[in-house]
Amino acid sequence: MRGSVRAPPSKSYTHRAVLAAGYADGATVRNPLDSADTRATARAVEAFGGTVERGDDAFVVEGFDGRPDTPEDVLDCANSGTTMRLTTATAALGSGLTVLTGDGSLRSRPQGPLLDALADLGARAESTRDDGRAPLVVGGHIDGGEVAIPGDVSSQYVTALLMAGAVTETGVGVELTTELKSAPYVDITLEVLRDFGVEAEATDDGYRVPGGQTYAPAGGEYAVPGDFSSMSYLLAAGALAADGELTVLGARPSAQGDSAIVDVLSRMGAPLDWDREAGEIAVSRADLAGVEVDVGDTPDLLPTIAALGAAADGTTRITNCEHVRYKETDRVSAMADELGELGAVVEEEHDTLVVRGGESTLRGGTVSGHDDHRIVMSLALCGLVADGDVTVEGADHVDVSFPGFFGTLRDLGADVTEQA
Ligand SMILES: O=C(O)C1=C[C@@H](OP(=O)(O)O)[C@@H](O)[C@H](O)C1
Ligand SMILES: C=C(OP(=O)(O)O)C(=O)O
Q1: I need a labelling partner for 146 at 20 to 30 A (CA). Which of 106, 119, 219, 232 fits?
Q2: Which residues contact 407 (CB under 8 A, 6 or more apart)?
Q3: Mind telling me the catalytic residues?
Q4: pTM for this model (two decimals)
Q5: Rounded Cα–Cα distance for residues 137 and 223 (Å)
Q6: Catalytic residues per the record (predicted)?
């Protein structure tokens, strides 16, 4: 493989910018990610009374100005946890009831702590099956207050409360009752809020957002940076299989914790150069060595690092990963099962995944993508080095965050065949 490629726009920033534009009078979101997940957030903004015109280079959003309508129909969040968490808090601002649901994966993911927090703030926030999972029924009206919430299930609860809290009367204070996992995602939220002219801050025990604020980005526009989680697959592909240089464009520094992939790959021994000002990362192939990585801040990197570990010499130990079990699928167990299927020696503990790699151990085979975009993309990486073809089932799920993934791999020189 070799060549240069532009990273897809960030999914996390696109979700936030589209919803922030919804909370505003409106805004133009430049360089948005147009994927299944971000379309779910766009649909939610429309259900709450806004409009989203999706063009090639921009989404033009007319907002609902901090006062969401009661949706005419059930809100289908599809596969997107971010959409469901962030818009559950939006629904608590309205006067009527909103019903939120999603696909089988999303209906299995935990929403209980956010429902409890919204109920503590005075909303009606229920799980129809009373198990803390969607379908959810949520209605208002919250006008602010203090709330306590655990931080070790999903940081998206905090993001949801801060984004909605800004348009409540009195604001919202969030006290974390445990350590916060995935903390850089809240930093992304604070960055987007700041860029939309909304004040919010970290406090000694959590976060606080004053109420009565108006969302409005400078010049009515917001530009989305490149996505470091998506870049992780491209950079890993380069480290595994680029005989010349593979360059990823659109890699300017931002609040994304997943830029840690650059450090992980360097520690594994990949020759890598990040020109931060130009936003370009160049990488080429090397024999990789196993490393220890704490993914407390970077859960979405676990599948990528596990796949790299299977191709690296020695042991890769991924720690602090319990929260990675609450994603589209239990990604700790999914990667353990599928890498094992390809011949890697993997040990799974509740909070740790150990991969004993060595390129020669990876063989071809057919593996399940677990209907999870990140599992699909990570297993595809194994195909670049395995001794035989790797067939990944359910490959169309890349549409969730990186619709052009396989075409991009092919453009860079990988041999990719799609089967119906
Ligand atoms: O807020 C976000 O944009 C995200 C937060 C993370 O989830 P958790 O906070 O649930 O770990 C991450 O895994 C997800 O892909 C996107
Ligand atoms: C977990 C993810 O997203 P979400 O929580 O929005 O479904 C992801 O993209 O890996």
Answers
A1: 106
A2: none
A3: 300
A4: 0.98
A5: 33
A6: 300
